[in-house]
Design goal:
Blueprint (H helix, E strand, L loop, with lengths): L1 E5 L2 E5 L8 H8 L18 E9 L5 E9 L12 E3 L12 H8 L9 H13 L6 H8 L10 H11 L6 H4 L1 H10 L6 E4 L4 E4 L3 H10 L4 E3 L6 H5 L7 E4 L9 E3 L3 E5 L4 H11 L1 H8 L4 H6 L2 H6 L7 H7 L3 E6 L2 E6 H4 E3 L2 E2 L6 E8 L5 E8 L10 E10 L2 E10 L6 E2 L1 H7 L6 H14 L10 H20 L12
Parallel strand pairs: 1-5, 7-9, 8-9
Antiparallel strand pairs: 1-2, 3-4, 3-5, 6-7, 10-11, 11-16, 12-13, 12-16, 14-15, 17-18, 18-19, 19-20
Length: 484
């Protein structure tokens, strides 16, 4: 059984189909049809809901953290122990919520189809903002698409709703909600079981290892932003899933003198602060990683584990010399990330083995790390080419080079020939041009609807040139640039 709060209503579910999304649960099982399906792939934001989780801050104070999610990509099992808020829950005692009023008063809605999603994104923004902030508003709304208004009135609604905000019914009930969430906090393995399909929800790494050993055919579910597409887009059935999002050990970020250890189930939005502090280009790229709804849901381990050749984080992590800790039963092994990817969607992971955490070396003064993402639009888009460069230059000579690309091969891959040209050479234009030519030996990219093979190779070469120019003239630096 799993338990969660539907606003303030306790829901206990056991026999539901584990392949059921929160979107369809709301619309078909509880009659809340305000949440809309626009794309069923996490691109449009019409299905946005907000999930509240019990958190404890550094001072030991308990509070509820509210986050926007795409309900079309969220399986119901991930709600275990949490609070689900949909657009119907905002109106209170006959009065619209302040974010709804702002949308009305700023004329932020025309056809209205996308409006519930915008309202929920604004609600999460208001809950997480103390004052109007244009950058945060753009970030909060980047995952919501509207064909009618041109966004200006919606941004005006964001400013109004965050300016001088007043306590609402959720603030008034916070203590009560905290008590209720504590009362339903999971204490044992949860399960949804419809007879022919099941999803198991472990709480510890040990339980996860035991379950995965018992069900090696199970699909591991973290954020589900990729896995859920098999259900919503390809109409496949997932007979057995194991949801790892309640394993607290895999959601920790620990900083040591020489490294950062990030649990594989840590949401990308939670990774931002630690990675941005060490590597600002990594932080910039995370801002461009899909939408806020996806970053609130998707995990760093999942972005590695799905072994996509166009995943945004693997090239950066490879260039930084990151490692993954793989767990199987009571056995653990640490593997360099560039050795993890074998072929398209093929990895070095063994049966019943899973990524427990990612180890990222801390920055050093000698490193010259930069990352660039080439995509057709700035926000909420997939890379055509993603490049990461990490050189050590001592007395004008390159002593070490780690260069990795996504979108250039069947796997995220280092540029071995390019690196060989650079190491031991002076860091000058002539050497860089030879290294650019060597990229043609490292990669034979494919053409697809995102870019031609010629465009990809030329882009990769030009990004290396850009990296060289920026290091020579840092005042013209433009990180993680999009090219149209």
């Amino acid at each position: 059984m799993i338990q969660f709060l539907l606003n303030q209503e306790l829901r206990s579910e056991h026999a539901l189909d584990p392949n059921l999304t929160v979107l369809n649960y709301l619309r078909e099982h509880v009659g809340k049809s305000g949440t809309k399906e626009g794309c069923a792939s996490g691109d449009c934001g019409a299905c946005t809901v907000v999930v509240g989780e019990l958190q404890t801050d550094d001072a030991g104070r308990e509070h509820i953290r509210y986050r926007s999610l795409n309900s079309c990509l969220t399986f119901v099992s991930s709600l275990h122990g949490k609070q689900l808020i949909s657009v119907e829950d905002l109106k209170h005692q006959g009065e619209l919520h302040s974010v709804q009023k702002a949308m009305v008063e700023c004329h932020g809605s025309q056809c209205g189809f996308c409006t519930p999603g915008f309202v929920m994104s604004l609600f999460a923004l208001q809950k997480n903002s103390d004052a109007p902030d244009q950058a945060k508003a753009h970030e909060a709304l980047a995952g919501n698409l509207c064909r009618c208004t041109g966004y200006r009135p919606i941004l005006a609604a964001a400013e109004q709703s965050c300016c001088g905000k007043q306590p609402d019914q959720f603030d008034a009930r916070e203590a009560e909600t905290i008590a209720r969430l504590k009362a339903i906090a999971p204490t044992d393995i949860g399960e949804l079981n419809s007879g022919d399909k099941r999803c198991l929800v472990p709480l510890t790494v040990a339980d996860l290892a035991d379950l995965y050993d018992a069900y090696p055919q199970a699909r591991l579910l973290a954020g589900g932003t990729d896995l859920a597409l098999e259900v919503t887009q390809f109409h496949r059935t997932l007979p057995v899933m194991i949801y790892v999002g309640n394993v607290a050990e895999m959601k920790r970020i620990e900083t040591f003198d020489d490294r950062i250890e990030i649990g594989a189930a840590t949401a990308l939005s939670d990774c931002y602060e630690a990675l941005n502090a060490e590597y600002p280009d990594f932080g910039e790229l995370l801002h461009r990683f899909a939408s806020l709804q996806i970053r609130n849901q998707g995990t760093l381990g999942g972005n590695i584990g799905n072994a996509s050749p166009i995943g945004d984080s693997p090239p950066l992590l490879i260039a930084l010399g990151a490692q993954v800790v793989l767990c199987k039963g009571e056995t653990r092994r640490t593997l360099n990330l560039d050795d993890y990817f074998i072929d398209y969607k093929v990895t070095a992971r063994q049966e019943s083995e899973f990524i427990e955490k990612i180890i990222v070396p801390r920055a050093s003064a000698e490193q010259r790390f930069r990352a660039y993402k080439v995509s057709k639009r700035l926000d909420d888009d997939i890379s055509a080419v993603c490049a990461a460069f990490n050189l050590r230059v001592e007395n004008g000579v390159i002593s070490d080079a780690r260069i990795a690309f996504g979108g250039m091969a069947a796997i995220p891959k280092r540029a071995a020939h390019c690196e060989a040209i650079l190491i031991g050479s002076p860091f000058n234009n002539a050497v860089v041009e030879r290294a650019c030519a060597a990229l043609a030996e490292d990669f034979t990219p494919l053409s697809d609807f995102r870019a031609s093979k010629e465009y990809r190779l030329l882009s990769a070469q030009n990004l290396l040139r850009k990296y060289f120019i920026e290091l020579q003239t840092p005042h013209i630096e433009t990180r993680v640039t999009a090219y149209v």
